[in-house]
Amino acid sequence: MIWTALALTTGLYLTQVNDKQVLLCETELIQPCLQELSPDARRQLPAIATEVNRLLGVRGAMVLPLQDTDIAGVILLDREQLPHSLSIELSGSLHSFTLAQQLEVTLLHEIGHLEAIALLESGVIDALSPYRHEWIADCYLIWRLAKEDKGLGLAWQQYHRRNVNMMQNVENISHWTVPIMAQVFNHYDVEQLVKFDSFNEFMQDALPKLSEETQDSLDEFASLFHRTFNTQVMHFLPDYMFWRKPVLGQLLEPTLVRLLGEPGAREWMKNQKLPSKMSLQRF
Q1: Which are the contacts of 157, defined by CB distance < 8 A and separation ≥ 6?
Q2: Could you tell me the superkingdom of the organism this chain comes from (predicted)?
Q3: Distance set, CA 79 to CA 6, 43, 61, 64, 187 (Å)
Q4: 178-187 and 153-168 helices cross at what angle (nearest 10)?
Q5: What is the reported pLDDT for 15?
Q6: Beta-sheet pairing, 20-26 with 71-77
């Protein structure tokens, strides 16, 4: 499927998850799209189409899983809410980068949420927290892009977006999948990823190699992000959360290089007392 050329339709089946279809519904045509569902599946969603759209809010997309024999879930899409670029102020200057093929990236991530549920149902994982939901969805994005011969450039774009979102607002910690994405990039290249015929097979190989952050460690990272990037912070504390700084520096460095260039990133990290140790491929 040519993702970036998706036409506005009353309903479009994107792919399959566990032999079930994934239905894409655009907000402008939500009522006729939802009519494609079986009566049992339709009853699992709000009765009024406007209420379904209200679930989406100001997000560009979200997925609604279903208990149905034919449909794994419905992805709601509002193209006008999809971001096209990201900006962040660092050292008094505004730095931006364009988000390429964001429609494709967004839809693959949402399908990844359904794949996460499929992993739970098949027993590959034994629990599915909201945070695990997010990083599994981004793992699916990485694997699927490789399988579609897209390389890892768009996956790295997602990595940078997750970091920038955290720089802007630490409330985005629930979607900060960077610690897991970094491990996937370190363990697998494109050639290795394409050898896995299914996402289920890839995750069975990957899970023993991945270390998930605890909620306590995520809270500490969020606190360090706030201290590092919040312009309202009055006092510079170079030793604040010093035990988290080496890992944070490693996870941020590719994104800072993307924003500032390598010399600028090294200088900024030096000023923030963040250790610089490049171990990830940069995009």
Answers
A1: 99, 100, 105, 283
A2: Bacteria
A3: 11, 26, 8, 17, 34
A4: 150
A5: 85
A6: parallel
